Amino acid sequence: MSGPVTDHRTTSDSATRNVASTLHGYPRFWRILPRINSKKIEMRKIIVQEFISLDGIIQAPGAPEEDNSGGFQYGGWTAPYFYQADKEADAFMQKNLEVTDLLLGRKTYELFAAYWPDNADRWPGIQEVTKYVVSDGLVALTWANSERISGDVVARIQELKAGEGSVLKVIGSGDFAQTLFAHDLVDELWLMIFPLTLGSGKRLFGKGVIPAAFALTESLVTSNGVIFANYRRAGDIQTGTIGG
Q1: Residue 136 has what pLDDT?
Q2: Domain boundary assignment for the chain
Q3: 147 φ, ψ to 5°?
Q4: Residues contacting residue 233 through CB under 8 Å, at least 6 positions apart
């Protein structure tokens, strides 16, 4: 797919404050995020981590004003389930804390950059990791250790994967994720699936998705129906005949 690789929308001050406030109240869900470790790996993985509805929507999970583009009316749809699921999934989420730089679309970068520098104690090591922001337009790189990726985005990401460093984690950044899917650059999916349908909104599995098999590596279901499921890329689609 040659579709969008960046988020070009600007973020209003009120939306930023609203999302920052929401993040402040999410001590662990939003922090299935890095603790610094110097361990290197031979080939860097790209992990796409998302809050997602049963019908695949990832738009504005955290707050009403997070992203109301396209007339989206259900911002903050994770909130009614959040705290119970967070409590029950603590041990599971701790297993998923790992070394990671961040690979973000523009809007997600702007939201995070507006909040985390002043709240770095809530995300140990966040100032030290590299934050790659994918944008063809200019971005104010106000967050420590930030770097813009533009131009031939796919080639640059392939270079990052082949180089030394930590896992690269994609959070939010739904438009950018389509580019990763289209070029088979996603190594793992870490999904937090909520028991509701939203009907319309930005989808994780959009036009960039290609046929691909994934294998479940870890899972947990909370008492209020939130499913935590981690998958790794597992080759091509296999077909057959049931009962044949």
Answers
A1: 92
A2: 13-226
A3: -145, 135
A4: 184, 186, 187, 188, 212, 213, 214
Single pTM value for the model: 0.81
According to CATH, what is the number of the domain 13-226? 3.40.430.10
Kindly give, in sequence order, each residue whose CB lies less than 8 Å from that of residue 74, ignoring residues fewer than 6 positions away: 60, 198, 201
Specify the residue for token string 């702007």.
Answer: 110
What's the start-to-end Cα distance of the chain, in Å? 36
The pLDDT tens digits of the residues spanning 99-121 come to 589 999 999 999 889 988 998 88
For the cut 90, the answer to whether the pLDDT of residue 34 exceeds it is: no
Spatial CB neighbours of 96, under 8 Å, sequence gap ≥ 6: 32, 190, 218, 230
Do β-strands 146-149 and 214-221 pair in parallel, antiparallel, or remain unpaired? unpaired
Kindly report the three-state secondary structure assignment for every residue of the chain: CCCCCCCCCCCCHHHHHHHHHHHHCCCCHHHCCCCCCCCCCCCCCEEEEEEEECCCECCCCCCCCCCCHHHCCCCCCCHHHHHHHHHHCHHHHHHCCCCEEEEEEHHHHHHHHHHHHHHHHHCCCCCCCCEEEECCCCCCCCCCCEEEECCCHHHHHHHHHHCCCCEEEEECCHHHHHHHHHCCCCCEEEEEEECCCCCCCCECCCCCCCCCCEEEEEEEECCCCCEEEEEEECCCCCCCCCCC
pLDDT tier at 41, thresholds 50, 70, 90:
very low
Q: Can you give the C-alpha Rg of the chain in angstroms? A: 17
Instruction: Tell me the pLDDT tens digit for each residue of 1-23.
Output: 444 444 444 445 555 554 544 44
